[in-house]
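WARN no homologs supplied; continuing
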Amino acid sequence: MTSLELLLLLNTAVLSGKEGMCWQYELLLSNNGPITTGARGTVEARLVPKPGSRQEQLEPQPYTFHWNVESPLAIVRSSEQEFNSSITVRSLAPKLYALRAWVTRTDCSWCPPLAHGSIKLLVTDSVVGTLSLKQPNGSITFSRKEYELATNIPTQISFILYDPSDYFDTASFRYFWYFGDGERMVTNKSYALHIYPTPGTYQLHLDVLAYLNHSQQRTGVYGASLSLLDTIKKIEVMSVDDIHADHKKNFYIYVNGSPPLDVCWLVSRSCIAVIDHSCDLIELPSSTVSNVSYTFRDLGPYTFNVRAKNSVSTLQACYKITTWKNGIHPVWFIVPCVTLFTIILLFVLSIAMRKGSARKDSIEVADFDFSPMSDKSVTEAWAPSRGTVHLCCIPCGRQKHESHSLSRREAHSLLKFSHTQIQAYSQRPEICSSSPL
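OK structure emitted
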């Protein structure tokens, strides 16, 4: 074998070894885009061993990083370390730029690359940022590219500017808010407060205007879909009474809140503070009512634990349950007792009312007749008859004198009665007897 053939064989072996070595590394690229036109962006490349390769760490030898950027994106600055490299780029034209990088050994320029990679960087005319929504109670979630919030709670909507190179440090901003329910607002601040009173889906819109100087300005348009839900205010469970042991019982659960809802229920001996995954889960995508069945094997007491949850709130409630064996229902013992008590009460009240009316009827008013014709009837009434014994109210010794006085007073008008005459009627009577004629 000649020396030339030996040299070619040696070069082939070296190239084969180097080519096999390049499969043991990879180049990871990242950037801080998107960036605004005129602003600066950063792109980094890092050389690492491939997962599962024999190289657990890089060999301490010099490496060279090579960059290729798409025009008119320009490299403003570059820096290189032992295992990574970074470049700062800038462009005045909006575009999605492609960048490529590869790594070679410094002491072997004719060797193939150890690793290579590519990445894209977005440069835009718009102000770059994101929308952030927050409520004081923290009930905020983000799913299916929609913000899910609670109604009747102040919502803070903020615009967060993304400016890694501090390009907008000296700029002034104006924000035009469109909340989607007919309300609008213009502010110099990057946030606004708003309350959505009714549930539904709203399209939030924000226009951002940045003044760089008197002649340059940048704009940005942002939007988000908001799903407003009512918080869960109450949970009602019907048919928690009239429970028979060994019978299947249906319970109806009513949730006062906006669907979709996750309802979890569990029957236990006592109220459980927090229901875990051991409960039975029911998903209600568009309804607020659900019914479940349960069979009580033993006598109570029991507790029906239920928890309802939607994207903005969670509520849990406990309901006491008492069961009994089959047979006579306890209500058939209660009804006779109540009826007997009512009858006794009515009887007592009727007796009390009768005593009151009898006491009232015993009071009589005397009827005095002072007319002249009354004396004759009185005389006849007091005339003695044979065979009878009379009781007189006139003093025995003064009967004759009193009769004469009455005859004389009959001739005068009753209106002329004097005080002494009235006293004659009020004298204390005496009881006397008369013998039969």
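Helices lie at 3-22, 331-361, 373-382, 399-410, 419-425.
OK
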